[in-house]
Amino acid sequence: MIRELTSIFVAGYCIFLLVLVYKLAQGADAYGNLMAALKSPSSVTLHLISLAFVLYHTITWFNLTPKILVLYRGEERIPQGLVAGTFYAGWVVVSVIVAWLVLGV
Hints:
3 helical TM bundles of succinate and fumarate reductases; two-stranded antiparallel sheet
């Protein structure tokens, strides 16, 4: 039930990203005002809480997926840990690519 509650934070952050894109399309002043508002302690706290809930949602989803997605290699079932591990590995790869693009390392 907690996992379902976390989906509210996932949806809320998606709405936040849409607002961010909308403000960026309005021009530099609107975007700058939003960036200034995001530096407030309450905004940072809300983002950290959202991050915790989104991470929990993601981890529980990756752990649930092998129970739903049953894969076979011939007659042999692929272990659930291998299926979940593939999702976690993909998550790490995508995270590294995004960090590389954002940070310009």
